[in-house]
Structures are given as structure tokens and as C-alpha cells.
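User: I'm putting together a teaching handout on how multi-component assemblies are represented. Below are the sequence lines for each component of a complex, exactly as they appear in our records. Could you produce the 3D structure of the whole assembly as C-alpha cells, so the students can see both representations side by side? Please keep the chain order the same as the input.
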Amino acid sequence: MLDNPQSGPSNPTRRAFHRTTEGTAATAVEAGREPPHRNSIPGQSASPAEIAEGPNIEGAVPITLRINGKDCQLRIDPRTTLLDCIRETVALIGTKKGCDHGQCGACTVHVNGRRVNSCLSLALMHDGEEITTIEGLGTPDALHPMQAAFVACDGYQCGYCTSGQIMSGVALLKEPCGPDDEAVKELMSGNICRCGAYANIVAAIQQVRKNT
Amino acid sequence: MPTTPEILTLSPIGRSTPRVDGPLKVSGLAQYTSDFQVPGQLYAVPVEATIANGRVDKLDTAAAEKMPGVRAVFQRENIGKIFRSVLGMGFEGICDERRPPFEDDVVRYYGQYIALAVADTFEAAKAAADAVRVTYIKDKPNVETELKADDDPEVVVTTFSPRERLQTQRGDAEAAFASAPVKIDQTYVTPAETHNPIELHATTAIWDGSTLTLYESSQGVFGRSRANVRLAERERPRHHQVRWLGFREQTVSMDALFARRRGRAATRQADQTRGQPKDDVPDGRSSPAYPAARAVGRHS
Amino acid sequence: MHTFEFIRPADSAAAVATAAQANTAQQGADVRFVAGATTLLDLMKLNVETPARLIDINRLPLDKIEATPDGGLKIGATVRNSDLAHHVTVQRDYAVLSQAILAGASAQLRNMATTAGNLLQRTRCMYFRDTAMPCNKREPGTGCPAITGSNRMLAVLGASEHCIATNPSDMCVAMTALEATIHVQGPKGTRAIPIGDFHLLPGSTPNRETVLEPGDLITHVTLPPPVAGSKQVYLKLRDRASYEFALASAAVVITVAGGKVTRARIALGGVGTKPWRSPEAEAALVGHDANEANFRKAAEAAMRDAKPQSENGFKIKLAKRCLAHALQIATKG
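Assistant: Of course. Below is the structure of the complete assembly, with chains in the same order as your input.
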């Protein structure tokens, strides 16, 4: 449904883009009143463990996850998937929930260096293990080569599948994979892109493989 | 338009231009609807009808309400009044579903929201939603491959406004076809397609006692904003602020309505059970913890 | 999801002792082993599986691939599917197994899924996966809505009037053609189960899918020594080129000498209620010339008892062509 601002009243609501990186302009809807609900970035402000001051959960169990190099001591409902733990408990929202059943790949993270669907794993199964999320690969000021290649090759439209695609692509660099596009497509078949940016995603991955 | 060399170098047409949001999207910093979080927020998961047509006969939320972490289970009996949006001109006031949620006990499609479980965590809310027991009186759904109107009205209601059905007429198509030397009369059928972006439907609502902030995904950013403001203002006097920040993609007015209602119910309960909000949020800045709630939908 | 107690046992004996308290090892178990969790969590989210206790076996020493004294291979229960598929010995001597695993799921899932988990993979039947629907496998006696409903992906071999659900595993089909043995440690000791005897036909008890009893822990799988000169192919046919379950698949392990088939092991996937060994096809091949006409005859024999449902009759022809084509690739390619 197309929305034409000209057809509305004279003062349409202005959109505020929440940027959580330093130095990027944020257009506030009202001067001096920014909504106090930006996510903290681990490393920039508090550590993820401090964010995980959750509600009092009945039957909560303690676990430690080493996420992007930082130990996070958490208390979670045992039913919490690794995905929901990363997103809700630790508030690292770069990893996305798409289908919650291991079919779309948007939730792809690395556990001990290997790509997995975090939605189909329980957080407490990974007590003591190393988890890498998209935030751990790089930042806008210091992009991982795969992240930079996605920008250069325009490997996204809406961007929702992008974290999962990049985490998958980075893992693929260390897996046995034939040289041609067909081989990359086969190994990336666990990541879907509803916007259809596949050609550019493959191009980005191949560009990194060529330069590595 | 003149194509001087200066204009050519300035124009983005034909040039590969990286997107400004690219670095944010590739580093996981671009925030989508369900990425906005407030400490202490609640989670709401809908109970969806498992029949395609009929009525809800019995809805038993007793077990769900007693589960750990559950704050409330909303349904028709206890959701209170939800106002309709009045259709105006153009896109004014459009909600994708005309009926407010829970308006009656009629089930019009599979997956229709019939209750909403609100809890401290997603796991508790989902378990509570799954624990709601529903019995239905089933009707036969209309799954005909062709839809025909029962009548032949002169005025029809469209998305935008009531319209005269016959708006322009020119020539005589039937006669022209009948007298044509070559006639091709063929029916082509394409399968129904639903546009389902990967991003999940969700609304995050934050109520601080005077301002309601809604995060929601929508392709109709301005229209959605105005509709939500109108609906919310009916529930509160005009002098309270309603602010809405929306982005892209699908419109889910259902979720927004729930989020608002559930956000306020959560506030009441928070006041009763938790006392004053805390002054510190963990990121080091000092500001009140705003009661917030997120309604989490599923793909249609 | 129902809540549960999470247990990490110190060793296999402790795991077995805890699991022995389960009401059943079949559908409805109140105690479950968890390894990769890809099937189990999927079903727990749907409330199809509701275990009150989960026993995590990931940290038990069951994750090795080793040679056996007789020249075969021993594969630990918690070996990840991807590691198994890429193992140098498997690729060289048991190529059909590597091909089958790599034809299944996605890279992420293959990194999580384990040998034991894949042996116990559950059907994708949409009625089984939907607790709002009746299902004899989930709740015996409630009926099978698939038989009169949507059944395009379901079985044409091994079905009963109670259940027509397909077994979706690729790995099991290859292991069947390789005549794998499944080793189980249970409350009363250890035992070895030929894979052909491991999975059960639905019959009148579709809720029972394997011969496992409470406490039975799969510890490893053994493969017999590779047959010298055998050719191995896994061919999978499906709606998409990747990341989709089989409509029909075939695993062939075949030896040809002097233009004649001297040995054949044939298994089919996507068409049976269990991984489908085909002695009929094998008998039609052995001793005969290895040519296309005989491959087609063998395929006919394999599907002779196939029974179509309302939407999956195409699988019968598809499976015949799949098997004939796989044999062609194995012997000529």
C-alpha cells in the first residue's frame, strides 16, 4: 500500500531513525526528548551481563555464555532458545527471528566457530561455549570483509535476513566448497531472502573468497 | 532535461551507490520493530483460531492465567472497549481489519486472534497462549475458486470510500468482440500469492503515564500513524501525547491495538505489584524504566 | 513449550539410568535424550513433544569416528552430520552416506544434527505436527486425517489404514543400503540392532516408531567393511534443488563384474513409512546384465506393492525412475 504524505494533513509525523552508533545523526521527533529505549551496544556502554537484569523467572537456571569474547552470566528460563537468549536476555538484537523453526536461517550464529540455527538450540545446552553474533564480526567503523562486501555488492534490500546471510557466508569460508556460484548457492541454501537479493549475496561471498 | 557533464557526475542513475543504511544492516545495528527493548517490558503472544469459519463456543483461560510469569490473558470478556477507526478520504483512518479484535465471537479466518496472553517473558507468554483451551462451533469455510456477489449493487465500498461501481463507460466491448474476425477468449489463472516478508509482525508499545510510543512496521507510515493516534486518543483525552514511530513493511493494526491496551494494563499491574519504577537503566543513563510491552505475532 | 528439568549426566550409565524412568521411548515420552535438538526442539515448540526431563548427551564421549577391527567404521552417536559427511574415510569408502547427508537439510542444521538424532528423525506430516488435528501417531485412536486430506508428501510403501507418514531421513536410507548396525546401551546391557530392524512399520501402532525401550541410549553405529569395487550413489528428487525433503530418493551400492551385477543393496527414501530396503530390486538385479532395461525392471519390482494415496500417486513412477537413474549413474558414471 503506497502512502503519499501529500494526501494527508499538513504536519505528518516525522520519522525518527534510531541510530545507536556514535557520530551518526539521529532525527529526534521532538527536540530534547529522545525515547529512552535504545539498545545498549556491548562494549560501548554496559556489558551484556548488566543488561540481563531480567524479571524474576520461576525455575531460572544459571548459565555462562561467552558472546563475542565477553562472558555473560545469565539466569534464564530453561526453555529459552539460544536465539531468544541472545536477543531478549542479552539484548543483542542483530540476530533475527524469522521462522523460529530452523527453516529460514535468519537466526544463524556461530557456536565454537560453526554456523548453527540458534532458534533450534537451547541456550543452556551451550553453557560455557563461545558464541559469535553479527555484532561480533564488525562495526560500521570497522567492518569485517564480508560485511564490507555486502555493502559494496548491495547484498540486501530490507536487511532482515542480512545478519544470518553474513554469518553463514563467513562460516562458509572455512567449509569445503567448490569454486563456482552453484556450490556457494548450495551451501547457502539454508538462508532465505524474501526480497530476492540472492544474486548480490552470492557475488559478495565470491568476492571475499577471491580476495582471501 | 539537459545532460551536461556536471549533471551526469551528480546523478545516481547508472552508478553503483552503496546504501546509507548498509553499514547498519550488515553489522546488526539497524533496528526493526521487535528490536526495541525497555527493561521490564512484558511480552504478549496471541491465541489464534484453529478453524477457518465459525464461532468460539468456549474460551477457558483459567489454567493459562495461573501459569508462572503470566500477568493477564485478554479476550472478549475483559479487553474493554476498543474503538473503530472512522474511514475518511483517501487513506485516512484505514485499518487493515475493520473490526476491532475480539469484537465478537465469530471466527472469520484461520489464525484470527481470539485471545492474548501477557507475561514477563516470551517463554511464559507463549506457554500461556498454548494453554488457553478453546472449543469452536465450526462452519463450512468458503474456499470456492471463484467469488460471485449475491447482488449487483450500484454502489460498492472500496478500501478508500464508497464508490459507484460503474465509473466510466466507452464503446461497446461485447459488440466489438462479437464482430471481430479473430476471437481469443481465454481464462488465465495465477495462484494466490501472499507477500510475507521475513520480519515478524510485532508492535512494541511504551507507556510512561503521559506518552504512548508505538514501534511498528508498516508500508503506510503516515496513514498508520494517523489511524493509531486517532484510536489511542479516543481512549485518552486529547491533551495527552501520542507519538508513533514506524518503518516500512506490513501494517499490523491488531498488534498495535493490543500493545496499547496491554501496555496500559501492564502499567496498572506494575504499579500494584512493583511500586515505583526504578530510576536507573543498565546502560548507565539515569531515566525512569518505562512500562512497556511487545505484542509478538506470527506470519500469516 | 512445556517447561522441563535439564540434566547433564556424568556418563552414559547415568544417562541410561535416568532415561529408564521414562514412561516410553516412543511418542509421548516424558524423558528425552537431547543431542543436536533440531528435531526435538522443533516439535517441543509445537507441543507435539512435551518431555518433562531432557538429558543432554552432547558432552558424553560419543563423538568419534574410528575404524573397527574388521575394517569397518564406528560412528559415535553425537558425531555431527557435517563431520560425518566430510570425513575422509566416509567420502572414500562409504560415498553414498556422504552424498545422502549432504543432500539433506542445510549447512547449519548439518552442523547441529547428530547420528543418533538423524536415526530418530520424525515425520514431517502436517497433521502430526499440528496438535489441533487428530493423529493416530500422536494420539492413538483419533484417526488419520491425511488419508482423506493432504498427503502429497506422504508414503506409498509400508502404510496402513492408521498411518501413512513418511520417514524423511536421507542418512537412514544410505545407512540401510550400507547395512549399518545400531548399537544401544540400555538398562539391561548393550545390544546391536541391524538398521533394517530398527524402525517399525506403523501398522496399528503408529505411535511406536523404533524398537527402543525406556533407557535405551544409541551409543554408536557401525558400518561393515567397504565392499571392494562397489559403486555408490545417492539420488534425491524433490521440488527444489536444495533444502527440501525427498519426493523420492534412492541409495544404491552395487558391484558389477564382467558386465553383470554381482551384488546390489538398494534402499529408497521419501516413499516409505520407514527407510525402505528393497530386496525385490536386489533380486531383480543380481546375476543380470547391468543395463538400462534391467534397471527399469528392478525399479518396477521395487515399487510393485506401492499403494497411492489421493495426492501422491506420482511418487510411484518418480521412485521407479529415480532408482533406475541412480543405477545408471552408479554403473556408467
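A couple of points students might notice: Chain C touches chain B through five residues (CB under 8 Å). The mean pLDDT of chain C is 98.
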